Amino acid sequence: MGKPLSQRTVPVCRPVFSGNEKKYLNHCIDSQWVSSEGPFVREFEKKIAARVERRFGVAVSSGTAALEIALQSLSLETGSEVILPSFTIVSCANAILRAGAVPVFVDSDPETWTVDPKKVLEKISERTRALLLVHLYGLPVDMKVLLEAARARGIFVIEDASQALGSSYFGQPCGSFGTLSTFSFYANKTVTTGEGGMIVTDDPSIAARASKLRNLCFEDHPRFVHYDMGWNYRMSNLSAAVGVAQLENLDSTLKKMRENGRLYHTALQGLEKFIQLPVPERPYSTNDYWVFGLVVKPESGFTAALLRKALEQKGVQTRPFFWPMHLQPCFSRMQIPPDLDISEHLGREGFYLPSGAGIVEEEVHYVTQALRSILIGEPTCERR
Ligand SMILES: *Cc1c(COP(=O)(O)O)cnc(C)c1O
């Protein structure tokens, strides 16, 4: 760091490696176990599964790979419908399409930004085979009625808990709900392995199928005879070693994330006329502020793009919210009903500030002061 904050950039995320990461990486190198056959992979699978109260963990090479394997491991019939939010990452829709199923997009709640449960219920049809629920930005989906509806109809639930490791819903860990759950360990996630992911489940047959699919559907004997097409989506021992060390610090990471979120929330009080702040809590969960998101209101005189530009000029990095799936050029051949206004609004006017455990208090204050002075102190800024 060194330089004063006004002369350097506040990054949108800064991964933290303050535990046994180097020590465990050295174990890998000293023992020459670097591939997926190494012992850290099993250890990481067991520890993540235990943390979220699941029986099985299957480590893979990314959160995207986890979603692909998850969808494939359900063996859906071609044309089955899978309901998911439009406001999510493209990996979700890709995985559904690649499994031969049809994504059915649902709009989000304007306050929580997660999928609107009432609208999910409305879209359940004869052809629905699964719900893909995505916890977003530190707040879980309100899943109660959806889990009940899915159970009553024999529909699978896939929980994308990539942004919710360590979060909970009515006191139960995110990643413990539904048929199976997925995680990502990308660099901005609460536990990172650089790149990585995991599928967790209580179902032994899904776990077995997922482990086969991630490993080219090799058989024990004869080894090079394949009964199905799989992928090489294995996680290396090197990645898992970092993951095991990261997991040892998960609780302090979560604590810091939440503290930063609360600091932002307090420091941005009074600006609600101009920007919508994240919901601090719901009866089912508190916000863990995996990232601290904002939605820009027209009253501010700014659009998200203009406000992000003004922040960038003050050395504050930001990231836009997801661009909704139903507006993606790559899905433009699909017939999509035009009832996804909230997703579009979030996609246009939402972005997030420097967040997570690696951002220090001084930086949070710098960012909020920058935002405050842009919104209320500097009539010279370019406005809409
Ligand atoms: C990060 C993320 C993914 C994708 O994970 P990768 O490891 O980047 O492939 C999937 N879903 C959600 C909700 C995510 O946040």
What is this structure's SSE topology?
Layout: H1 21-31, H2 39-51, E1 56-60, H3 63-73, E2 81-85, H4 90-98, E3 102-106, H5 117-123, E4 128-134, H6 144-153, E5 156-160, E6 168-169, E7 172-173, E8 180-184, E9 197-201, H7 204-214, H8 237-248, H9 250-267, E10 275-276, E11 281-282, E12 285-286, E13 292-296, H10 304-313, E14 319-320, H11 341-349, E15 350-353, H12 361-377
Parallel strand pairs: 2-3, 2-4, 4-5, 5-8
Antiparallel strand pairs: 1-9, 6-7, 8-9, 10-13, 11-12, 13-15, 14-15
Helix pairs in contact: 1-8, 2-8, 3-4, 3-7, 9-12
The structure holds pyridoxal-5'-phosphate.
Folded structure, characterized:
By secondary structure, this protein is α/β, with parallel strands linked by helices. 36% of the residues lie in helices and 15% in strands. The protein contains twelve helices and 15 strands. A seven-stranded mixed sheet has the order 1-9-8-5-4-2-3, with helices on both faces. The protein has a four-stranded antiparallel sheet with strand order 10-13-15-14. A two-stranded antiparallel sheet has the order 6-7. Strand 4 (128-134), helix 6 (144-153) and strand 5 form a beta-alpha-beta unit. Helix 1 packs antiparallel against helix 8 and helix 3 (63-73) crosses helix 7. The two termini are 35 Å apart. The model has no long low-confidence stretch (mean pLDDT 96). The protein binds pyridoxal-5'-phosphate. Pyridoxal-5'-phosphate is lined by residues 62-64, 89, 91, 134, 160, 162-163, 184, 186, 197.
